[in-house]
Design goal:
Catalytic activity: (2E)-4-hydroxy-3-methylbut-2-enyl diphosphate + oxidized [flavodoxin] + H2O + 2 H(+) = 2-C-methyl-D-erythritol 2,4-cyclic diphosphate + reduced [flavodoxin]
Number of helices: 14
EC number: 1.17.7.3
Domain IspG TIM-barrel: 22-292
Largest sheet: 8 strands, parallel, barrel
Strand order of the largest sheet: 3-4-5-6-7-8-9-11
Helix content: 40-55%
Keywords: 4Fe-4S, Iron, Iron-sulfur, Isoprene biosynthesis, Metal-binding, Oxidoreductase
Radius of gyration: 24 Å
Function: Converts 2C-methyl-D-erythritol 2,4-cyclodiphosphate (ME-2,4cPP) into 1-hydroxy-2-methyl-2-(E)-butenyl 4-diphosphate.
């Protein structure tokens, strides 16, 4: 194997471990691995055959910051819809690469819909669901042959919930013969890793270049995911896609994903991520994209939008005004980033602080590019603003929110505008 493992850092060093060196995989112009930044991806939950609904959701995910979007391709209608979805997205200027998610019948769908095979930027294959019995190897080979024919990369994505049962049974039998057998969980982890690795090596034997393969081996438990990917990283030279297979709903899904992925990313493991949140009823699908971005940004791997440090509140901050201002600021900068990304590059690295009283307010505000220290209970009704560590103005009255947002916009224009970048 040709893996290069990132060197260990001293415990006192800040920031994520150096990235693993992997082959860069070009997915419709977005490169995964090979030292490139970790890529955010997401998946639609519309009926892919509903072209209008799928186009809208893909566009929403892309605008939120998803760099790759995966769609289910499970029947002839969804396969026929893919090129139409691609065409409509292109007309809208939404150039996000599309990934086709295939289970059971992908070999048939790609054979019958060559336009679908061409329109997709990558195919996702689950080795546990590619076929059963004698058909498994043949159908896997057919999918790889389509990838070779159309020049597409492939994610070989093994999954705890659809593990190759024949391989699992084989490894269980081998385990019984060991002098000191592994526990059942270790055997199943090994089966998951072997399923991904064996399939990847088979794809290479069939002629698919190594630099067109991404691996994943997903489970739902945090500690299991960390263990699986540590082992997979040691034993493979392929780009790795990270994510819990079913993270859960609300705070549970966010916490579980962050707990697992932060550990791996800190160790330099992982080249692309998805946060598989169950959406709250009626909530936007884009939440999973925002969580992925915030995870990468808080671990220091990427910058997507200005980071807002905000006071949690205590008995000194009985007013809700600082909470309201923090929300206004957060929504304002996130709403402006699609524009600033092109007109004011670098603004995503900006730090902001909205603090609620004199205890930590001035200090935290000085650490930010722009910070405001609001008056706590019983304090003088004045809000000093600090810009790059220096107090510049004190805001008072009913228009503090409007004036502070205006100061942010002026700072972005001054520091990250076209004149500043020349």
């Amino acid at each position: 194997m040709n893996d290069t493992v990132a060197p260990c850092r001293m415990p006192t060093e800040a920031g994520p471990a150096p990235r693993r060196i992997t082959h860069g995989v070009d997915i419709g112009g977005v490169v995964v691995g090979g030292g490139h930044p970790v890529v955010v991806q997401s998946m639609t939950n519309t009926d892919t055959a509903d072209v209008a609904a799928s186009v809208k959701q893909v566009a929403d995910l892309w605008r939120a910051g998803s760099e790759l979007v995966r769609l289910t391709v499970n029947n002839p209608e969804s396969a026929a819809a893919i090129p139409r979805i691609r065409e409509k997205l292109d007309m809208m200027g939404v150039a996000v690469p599309l990934i086709g998610d295939f289970h059971y019948n992908g070999h048939q769908l790609l054979a019958n819909e060559p336009a679908c095979a061409e329109a997709l930027a990558k195919y996702r294959i689950n080795p546990g669901n590619v076929g059963f019995g004698k058909k498994k190897d043949t159908q896997f080979a057919q999918l790889i042959e389509f990838a070779i024919r159309y020049g597409k990369p492939v994610r070989i994505g093994a999954n705890w919930g659809s593990l190759d049962q024949a391989l699992a049974a084989q490894l269980m039998d081998e385990n019984h013969a060991r002098e000191t057998p592994w526990d059942a969980a270790a055997v199943l982890r090994e089966a998951l890793i072997r399923s991904a690795l064996d399939s990847a090596h088979r794809a290479v034997e069939l002629g698919l270049p190594r630099e067109r393969i991404v691996l994943s081996a997903k489970v739902s438990g945090v500690q299991e995911l960390i263990a699986v990917y540590r082992e997979l990283a040691q034993r493979s030279e392929f780009a790795l896609h990270l994510g819990l297979t079913e993270a859960g709903i609300g705070s549970k899904g966010i916490v579980a994903s962050s707990a697992a992925l932060a550990v791996l990313l800190q160790e330099g493991i992982g080249d692309t991520i998805r946060i598989s949140l169950t959406p709250e009823p009626g909530a936007s699908r884009t939440q999973e994209v925002i969580v992925a971005q915030e995870l990468l940004q808080t671990t220091g791997l990427r910058a997507f939008t200005p980071m807002v440090t905000a006071c949690p509140g205590c008995g000194r901050t009985t007013s809700e005004f600082f909470q309201e201002l923090a929300k206004v600021v957060q929504e304002h900068v996130r709403g402006k980033m699609p524009e600033w990304k092109y007109t004011h590059p670098g603004a995503e690295n900006m730090t902001l602080a909205v603090m609620g009283c004199v205890v930590n307010g001035p200090g935290e505000s000085r650490h930010a590019n722009i910070g405001i220290s609001l008056p706590g209970t019983g304090e003088a009704p004045a809000a000093p603003v600090f810009v790059d560590g220096e107090k510049t103005v004190t805001l008072r009255g009913e228009n503090i929110a409007h004036e502070f947002v205006a100061l942010i916009d002026a700072y972005v224009e001054r520091k990250y505008g076209s004149a500043a970048s020349v």
